[in-house]
Amino acid sequence: MRHTLNRVSTEAAPEPTVGPPLELPSELLRLRASIDNIDAALIHLLAERFKATQAVGVLKAQRHMPPADPKREEQQVARLRALAQESGLDPVFAEKFLAFVIAEVIHHHEKIAGAAQG
After folding, report:
1. Contact status, residue 57 vs residue 113, Cβ threshold 8 Å
2. What is the C-alpha separation between 82 and 39, in angstroms, rounded?
3. For residue range 68-86, what is the model confidence (pLDDT) as tens digits?
4. Which of 5, 11, 15, 76 measures 20 to 30 Å from 96, CA to CA?
5. pLDDT tens digits for 9-59?
6. 60 closest CA partner among 47, 74, 72
7. What is the DSSP letter of 1?
């Protein structure tokens, strides 16, 4: 059984080939290096985003504001769907990704608010 990012595949792993290892094309190596750099940038950007949202959570807790802001979330979804469309990214994917991030932010805000109360 192989694991691939939250999915479990029941397919058997491909049989290893006998003989000398294949040399990967330089274009493939270049593209993979670019993808690795982009993935690293995404992680760093998400870390910075969560630092900012943690600060927002503290401010909301101090002012007894609710952790979620549905109006703001709706505006963000519309803005990022449009941005995704302009960028050639599937807007449905962008909305699902943002929904995941927002859910995590709200969870953090709820924990911050709970800690502030008790």
Report:
1. yes
2. 23
3. 999 999 999 999 999 999 9
4. 11
5. 556 666 656 666 789 999 999 999 999 999 999 999 999 999 999 999 999
6. 72
7. -
> What is the distance between the terminal CA atoms of the chain, rounded to a whole angstrom?
45
DSSP string across 62-82: HTT--S--HHHHHHHHHHHHH
d(CA 79, CA 27): 35
**CA-based nearest residue to 84, from 68, 69, 104, 99:** 99
Name residue 112's amino acid.
Answer: I
Q: What are phi and psi of 66, to 5 degrees?
A: -65, 150
Q: What is the pTM of this model?
A: 0.72
Do the beta carbons of residue 109 and residue 56 sit within 8 Å?
Answer: yes
3-state secondary structure of 7: strand
Q: Are 61 and 108 in contact (CB under 8 A)?
A: no
Longest distance between any two alpha carbons in the chain, whole Å: 67
Q: Which residue has the tokens 């962008």?
A: 94
